[in-house]
């Protein structure tokens, strides 16, 4: 019988029998069998194997829904996940993998694997995650913890390398943490909230280990980890897709964990928009940076998580209700994002010429955006060909900044239409110096300076112009760029960016971020041996080498969600 694996002080709403129940043991994936399957390198093939479309799932919208419900029930919902992205059966502890295409891997790859393995965090003998940074030269703060968002590239690297165990352990451990009672001062957080991070506490006297988690109650600024739950669902789908093992996602506790996350983000409120309203600093940018309201990063992750949940939820009584709500939300969310967050030259010109103070449903300038609020830089930044999803949209507010993660996730989740995806890649190519420069990639562009920096960041000395979250360059974003490149058929863009990173990353000891307009300088307070910089590089390399890995982190467009491209008379794409 296993002993409780959580800190009992935090654990007030878990029943004793839950604690004493051993975690379900899973059958090891039989890789020799998997290897018998033909390897699918062709991305087109992957597309055709894509999952349930929204039309299939229009429960309550289709007269045939009850029979479909039976068809799709239980493990059959996974029937289209029947191929494996990572055809290799290497195990943890083995030495660095060799290139499968016969090319000699870059010498950095071996170093990166070693560094990634050094970052492993064990709980009672099992690997459960990777530490944020293994840098002893700086104050630890919370960099000695396993962050949910930081673990994603590590997880993908392990999945691509045929080592799914750590990912399964991570998914189950964080699920247990979700069921803690969470309090910040006297305020109780929603049941579904997933932690930002956790760590393993060793008690040398009692010779025991416990987990402690941070749901924002210790985080600098007490920021809410809205992205964690979304990443958790996305990772569960990546694990399922990569291994073909549907049993993890089918576990009642995993189904419940997903429903709890979904309850939080699908709950009804006063909103007039389908986008998700958030406080500042609730994602990778976890400090005050003017990303409150409806930040693109959260909207794109929200969309992606909803699509993944659709693939993973069982059509039992509880699941069905959520599926129905997800389908409706996806329709509204994709319409809203594709119409109002999208900016290209034509759209920019339209906003520039907007009339204001329009009342009634015929308004073209629906959010009453003042043309005077258009920043100078955006006119130069916008290429003739290309476009992107802007940072934020709400009444009288458009944040025109470019955010890398949100745009890449929009491509991977097919929140962006194929035309919009191509346009985003076009923009990256034409604004190479600004967005890639001497180190990929800018987390956002441009930086805020002087008065704006004072007002929006609250005079944050860590987020001065072109540093950290304020226009800093983050190597971790390389994997997202590469995945987006592979999905849009533009691998040469990724290759170029990877080459730039390879010139410095190892030599500089895998910094967390770089500073300066071009990303030339190792960041002011940047940690070294930052795990997601290491894992991000590995994922980028493996994905380029074997594009079929893309399947675990990308979802094809659902034809049912084709947008109404006409918003105003002048709208074209
Ligand atoms: C910083 C980053 C955050 C990351 C954490 C751990 O707080 O802003 O995105 O998760 O470090 O690396």
UniProtKB/TrEMBL annotation:
<protein>
    <recommendedName>
        <fullName>Alkaline/neutral invertase</fullName>
        <ecNumber>3.2.1.26</ecNumber>
    </recommendedName>
</protein>
<comment type="function">
    <text>Invertase that cleaves sucrose into glucose and fructose.</text>
</comment>
<keyword id="KW-0326">Glycosidase</keyword>
<keyword id="KW-0378">Hydrolase</keyword>
<dbReference type="InterPro" id="IPR012341">
    <property type="entry name" value="6hp_glycosidase-like_sf"/>
</dbReference>
<keyword id="KW-0119">Carbohydrate metabolism</keyword>
<comment type="similarity">
    <text>Belongs to the glycosyl hydrolase 100 family.</text>
</comment>
<dbReference type="InterPro" id="IPR024746">
    <property type="entry name" value="Glyco_hydro_100"/>
</dbReference>
<dbReference type="InterPro" id="IPR008928">
    <property type="entry name" value="6-hairpin_glycosidase_sf"/>
</dbReference>
<dbReference type="Pfam" id="PF12899">
    <property type="entry name" value="Glyco_hydro_100"/>
</dbReference>
